[in-house]
Amino acid sequence: xxxxxxxxxxxxxxxxxxxxxxxxxxxxxxxxxxxxxxxxxxxxxxxxxxxxxxxxxxxxxxxxxxxxxxxxxxxxxxxxxxxxxxxxxxxxxxxxxxxxxxxxxxxxxxxxxxxxxxxxxxxxxxxxxxxxxxxxxxxxxxxxxxxxxxxxxxxxxxxxxxxxxxxxxxxxxxxxxxxxxxxxxxxxxxxxxxxxxxxxxxxxxxxxxxxxxxxxxxxxxxxxxxxxxxxxxxxxxxxxxxxxxxxxxxxxxxxxxxxxxx
Length: 262
Prior knowledge:
52% of the residues lie in helices and 13% in strands. The relative contact order is 0.05. The protein has helices at 4-26, 31-41, 55-67, 70-76, 99-104, 157-163, 180-202, 210-222, 230-261, and strands spanning 43-45, 50-52, 81-88, 91-98, 131-132, 139-143, 151-155. A three-stranded antiparallel beta sheet has the order 4-3-5. Strands 1-2 form a two-stranded antiparallel ribbon. A two-stranded antiparallel sheet has the order 6-7. The chain folds into three domains: 1-52, no CATH class; 53-164, no CATH class; 203-261.
């Protein structure tokens, strides 16, 4: 059990530090200098947490990352922060930074030369260009969907392609499934395709299909003047029906054989 005097001392000390910070910021003579000093040290105070990111911490983190690359993995496993790298005085430095804040409040750059014209309003120091320090095939992808919040994805890009689906429709009621329009569209496509395929099969000149009567009507309309004998026309139609039936049977047998051979 934590001793009560220790809790009282910690809370009292933190209240004293926070009240002193508030008074110094409100002071007319020391306020500006105090905020500049905080910005130069990378120190920020709030009632609930203290955050300190100095150049010394970044250099130590960079050395640890070179010695043990597993440190980058631990940083990149955070739900809010990500490891970023930047160049300072021809040296590669690393820092764990909040991803969403970096992407929403920063401009797009490719080198420090693009950031020399922009200064930090808090510290009045030149900005630096930072890039995510990730693995070989891992990428940081920002997906915008106005007016909703941007979605951030860290991982292998093909995984995002298979995990996210896009649609042009939005349900008006909550009980409707988002994929309902796509399902109905796919169902209609299958119905049209299946109906067309059955219509084509039904038109094949084969016994017991509509193609038999279609062939008979076609022969009666075209061969009356060429073949005047009715029995000869029926014989020609019979051989055509026999060939169509054999072709259809061979097609069905070949399809069954290809399916079962796999």
